[in-house]
Amino acid sequence: MAASLAGLAAGQRRVVGFDTEAGRERALACANTLTVDGKLEQMLALMPMEDELSAEAMQAWQKLVQVLAHEIMNSLTPVASLSKTSRELLAGARLPQELSRDLDTALDAISRRADSLVHFVNGYRALAAVPDAQPQAIELAALFERIKALAAPAWLARGGILRFSVEPATLQLCADSGQLEQALVNLLQNAAEATATTLMPMASVSATLVRGGRLRIEVSDNGPGVPDEVAAHMFTPFFTTKPKGSGIGLALVKQLVHRNRGSVGYARAVAGGARFVLTF
Fold first, then answer.
1. Cβ atoms within 10 A of the Cβ of 87, count?
2. Over the stretch 158-169, which tens digit does the pLDDT of each residue have?
3. pTM for this structure?
4. Does residue 168 contact residue 273 with C-beta atoms inside 8 Å?
5. Which residue, among 40, 17, 38, has the nearest Cα to 27 in the 3D structure?
6. What is the spatial distance between Cα 149 and Cα 85, in angstroms, rounded to a whole number?
């Protein structure tokens, strides 16, 4: 980034990327000149824009999902209905047994596939229909205890370790409790999948105050981590590297966090593994 800023001439603007403790972020760099003690000096200003860009991108994705889901459902619904009606008509028709069996098998396959696609589309519609947050004061220690009760048994059954920490113990956050809990549960599910082949799987969830009085929640694991080329797209709706993945999980996490005036990013873990950082 230093080389990019050094090349800015007075009056120029440029979007620059840089690594922070919350992951990769972008800012608008502006250059200008001013006179100080009779000397001409150059001034550079950085205006953070990651939150604004992410919000705009998420709104665009929501609109796209709504349009696609609407159009697909308009086509799928009659297909599913007609295939079921055809099977009922076929049951009362006098046709050769083998032909009747083949037709029934074909119509059943169409019906099942249509139902499967309806279920698939409904999953994407959920991404575009996240309700507005209902913020309230949350005791993070109590929230973490609830999540621990849900997730810890599965980790223990695998011989794994799941840790939670809050510093200070009285730390509070004004957010929608249900949405924040869902986001953290999704990240822990992601961690469980990432450590599926790890000899001693470990994950931790921590909350603490950082510079500027901001609250940071980290979810980390000791899995293989995420390659840079994947990390750049992992929050994009529909993007997945899993054979049976839907590309909804992390996109939904980002949506839930943004609904609560927060940001989420992926940061490289010093000791390896994956580390997700939520900042409020």
1. 16
2. 999 999 999 999
3. 0.65
4. no
5. 17
6. 46
